[in-house]
Amino acid sequence: MSIGPDIKDVLREVGVSYTILRDAGNITGEYIFTKSNAQVTKPFIREFFLEGFISYDTDVAVGDIIQMNTSSKNYMVMNKTPELLEDIVYRYSVVLYLCNVIADILRPSDLEATADNRWLSGINWSYIARQTNCLITTPLYGHELSIDDQIGALGIEVYEMYAPSSLGIQALDRVRISSIEYYQVETVKSRRYEAVDVFELGEDTRGSITTTTTTTTTTTA
User: Which has the least CB within 10 A, 129, 169, 194, 200?
Assistant: First the structure.
């Protein structure tokens, strides 16, 4: 007989309740037990990394965003590994990354002239995702370009973003955190994690929609 139901009962007693955030409807009623990592002295691990285990019959999938009900902090599920006893899953170990921004994802497209003597120039932006939870941080590994590297007289600031693969984010998309903070997706790294993509972000200097007529010019953000 599996010990999975017994561990599930223990999680109800000593674990932390969380909600799985889904567009189709949130899922509640599950619990997680978290623990410290052996590399807790590393700044990224201390700030963003969390690991633990959840029940054998969980609805959690890699790439999900879960919200801790007590702290209201949101985490991205980076890894979900079954733990087996006599070939039966009795619980799952998970790795979570803290989501530190809520962003809109927009995709550019060219504008065309209209039939009423109005000419459009600039870039039209359409939403790919609204108010999505993700993690933006400086690159974690030595082989990546680090923050504030100098190339000639040009200062380059590079960030990495972690987001669910299901969003379908592509190179050249815009990541907008606020009206004054937004980035361009430079590179998509789709094979580092299951169901989670890593994106290299850079400065986004592209403009907004500009509408021009014979007498006036207006700009729309």
Answer: 194
